[in-house]
From TrEMBL:
The lineage of its organism: Bacteria, Pseudomonadati, Pseudomonadota, Betaproteobacteria, Burkholderiales. InterPro entries: UROD/MetE-like_sf, Uroporphyrinogen_deCO2ase_HemE, Uroporphyrinogen_deCOase. It comes from Advenella incenata. Keywords: Cytoplasm, Decarboxylase, Lyase, Porphyrin biosynthesis. It comes from the Bacteria. The keyword Nucleus does not apply. This is Uroporphyrinogen decarboxylase. GO terms for biological process: protoporphyrinogen IX biosynthetic process from glutamate.
Length: 357
């Protein structure tokens, strides 16, 4: 498929550690409930799933934050739970309670029956990718994404968000082979899912390991990172003559930075507990870094927000060859005042431009 020529490649260049005129910025969950226009589209669609499963609506909300702020990348509007939904678990959203599966994986039989879904069931995702890429008209690159096998499996086994991960950790400690089987199927499915997004037009892909950080050292490597590595090794990263960079983000994964680098990703996403200067020293020029302001910093004053942005950019230090993509350390809160996002994006661009000269 032919797409409009890319006008702003600063994000892709930074990921490949090439020279950039300023530090590019985008925000995890940049399309969402903190924007009134998102809530209006969601009301039109009837529900979050109605929104995410309709490529026209998904395109509309993906572009909304770009119309407000001069962001350097767009991210597909979807969810990490669409893949297990296609695996037959029955995704639903209960108002105020977040995602829930009607058929979580609990018994040996549930696990034996789990299979890689026919990717045609996720056609609406790939159609949205192509449609967004066309509608972007080359403004900025489009990021595709999936959850890490571990994080997606947390929801598949718990059936919903959890505070103690009791079900999945019980399986991990008592029946590890059963858990490995779920992770293996999910990893294969995730690789196919991301490859389809790349074929449909995604110009970078990100793996969200939101709950890897709840694992013990040693078990993180075995139950989360090993499967992220498997996914990455199967990605078709050369598409249409260009490289598709892979960003790997484990929330709470700062202690395992060197291990994460060895998974084969091009960039590591970091949360706000990590100092970027120290992280950079640890990874050298092997990968780019993405992050890492605390999303709650957006509840500060304009001055406070600008100061935090400068601190993060200064921590990363002198930029000769890109290597830094500015982002939050986790998703933006639904209560964030949009005006504060303008201050953040403006400060990233203006302050970093003076340093990239
Ligand atoms: O970043 C973007 O703008 C792209 C869209 C995106 C969504 N979810 C939309 C969404 C992305 C990248 C995700 C990823 C996702 N989904 C993750 C990994 C990232 C992270 O935040 O850790 C996880 C763990 C999920 C699972 C999920 N989906 C939860 C826990 C929830 C409920 C959270 C809440 O705030 O209510 C969702 C729903 C969801 N996914 C919303 C959005 C905008 C809110 C739904 C709504 O409109 O009511």
């Amino acid at each position: 498929m032919a797409f409009p020529v890319l006008q702003n490649d600063v994000f892709l260049r930074a990921l490949q550690r090439q020279h950039v005129p300023y530090t590019p910025v985008w925000l995890m969950r940049q399309a969402g409930r903190y924007l009134t226009e998102y809530n209006e589209t969601r009301a039109k669609a009837g529900s979050f799933l109605g929104l995410a499963k309709n490529p026209d609506f998904a395109t509309e909300v993906t572009l909304q934050p770009l119309d407000r702020f001069p962001l350097d990348a767009a991210i597909l509007f979807s969810d990490i739970l669409m893949l297990p939904d296609a695996m037959g678990l029955g995704l639903g959203f209960v108002a105020g309670e977040g995602p829930q599966f009607a058929r979580p994986l609990r018994t040996q039989q549930d696990v034996e029956q789990l299979a890689i879904p026919d990717m045609n069931q996720l056609r609406y995702v790939f159609d949205a990718v192509s449609q967004i890429r066309q509608s972007l008209n080359g403004r900025v690159p489009l990021i595709g994404f999936a959850g890490s096998p571990w994080t997606v499996t947390c929801y598949m086994v718990e059936g919903r968000g959890s505070s103690d991960y009791r079900q999945i950790k019980t399986m991990m400690y008592a029946q590890p082979a059963m858990l490995h089987r779920i992770l293996e199927v999910t990893a294969q499915a995730t690789a196919q899912y991301l490859n389809e997004q790349i074929r449909a037009g995604a110009q970078a892909v990100m793996i969200f390991d939101s709950w890897g950080g709840v694992l013990a050292d040693g078990l993180y490597q075995q139950f989360s990172l090993a499967y992220i590595t498997k996914v990455i090794s199967q990605l078709e990263r050369n598409h249409d003559g260009v490289t598709v960079p892979v960003i790997s983000f484990t929330k709470g994964g700062g202690l395992w930075l060197e291990d994460i680098v060895s998974s084969g990703c091009d960039a590591v996403g970091l949360d706000w507990t990590v100092n970027l200067k120290q992280a950079r020293k640890r990874v050298g020029d092997r990968v780019a870094l993405q992050g890492n302001i605390d999303p709650m910093a957006l509840f500060g004053t304009e001055d406070g927000i600008r100061q935090e942005v400068r601190r993060v950019i200064d921590d990363f230090g002198p930029v000769t060859n890109g290597g830094h993509v500015f982002n939050l350390g986790h998703g933006i809160s639904q209560f964030t005042p949009p005006q504060n996002v303008s201050f953040l994006v403006d400060e990233v661009h203006s302050y970093s431009a003076s340093k990239h000269a």
